[in-house]
Write a structure and sequence with these properties.
The chain is an alpha/beta fold and about 230 residues long. It folds into two domains: about 120 residues, Rossmann fold (3-Layer(aba) Sandwich); about 90 residues, Winged helix-like DNA-binding domain superfamily/Winged helix DNA-binding domain (Arc Repressor Mutant, subunit A, Orthogonal Bundle). The strands form three sheets. It has a five-stranded parallel beta sheet with strand order 2-1-3-4-5, sandwiched between helices. Helix 4 crosses helix 8 and helix 6 packs across helix 8.
Length: about 230
């Protein structure tokens, strides 16, 4: 897999590139946001994943993330020292597919890269459902992966859409956290649990319907549709 590493620290980039190379990745290193965006212009979806450090010298990392998403659907994993939920939700709202908080374990990073790649490959596979799910004001178009609330389209990331579509297929039914992680992230890796919480919070904010997804303490989540 080809991977674009956006990291301004050459020592960190060299060490990480060596690790990634040992695991079969073909790494292209961009030292700032401008280099990253230039690399994506001719290549586009030639990269399997973009690993984006938010602490860049020339541009705000969040701004770069938004520009990348406008140019390509290539999965973006943010690398950040900001551990608060609000910062991570902001990144997801801009189109990031996942995040890793510094300091991170290399095994964690590799697991997230592979999980994002598996999910993207699954989404790009031909076939699939050809229906829409309508739950009150919310309409979920499965073929086009488009969500609207009262007729207004809401921009969701891949995982946000997959999470919402999963819950919406069985309104009122409680989905266990392990089941959601398995079906949306295509992994049983326990570290994904915190990512799930952030995506639920992001969905509630984007849809402006905080009561739509109910947390069932100690079990998981369910979608509370009108009349359910």
């Amino acid at each position: 897999m080809r991977l674009l590493l956006v990291e301004d620290d050459n020592h960190v980039a060299a060490a990480l590139s060596a690790v990634l190379a040992r695991h079969g990745f073909d790494v292209t290193h961009a030292r700032n946001g401008e280099e990253a965006l230039r690399a994506l212009v001719p290549e586009g979806d030639g990269f399997g994943v973009v690993l984006l450090d938010l602490g860049l010298p020339d541009q705000d990392g969040y701004e770069v993330c938004g520009k990348i998403r406008k140019r390509t659907s290539t999965p973006v994993i943010m690398v950040t020292a900001r551990s608060d939920v609000r910062s991570r939700i902001h990144g997801l709202n801009l189109g990031a597919d996942d995040y890793v908080v510094k300091p991170y374990d290399t095994g964690e990073l590799l697991a997230r890269i592979h999980a994002v790649s598996r999910r993207t490959a699954h989404e790009d596979a031909p076939g699939g459902a050809d229906t829409a799910l309508v739950l009150g004001a919310v309409r979920i178009e499965l073929p086009t992966r488009q969500v609207s609330v009262d007729g207004t389209v809401v921009q969701l990331t891949r995982k946000e859409f997959d999470l919402l579509a999963l819950l919406a297929q069985r309104p009122g039914v409680v989905f266990r956290r392990e089941q959601i992680i398995s079906e949306v992230w295509r992994t049983s890796w326990e570290g994904t649990g915190r990512t799930l919480e952030v995506h639920v919070a992001s969905l509630r904010a984007k849809l402006r319907m905080p009561a739509l997804i109910e947390t069932v303490r100690g079990v998981g989540y369910r979608l509370v549709a009108p009349g359910v």
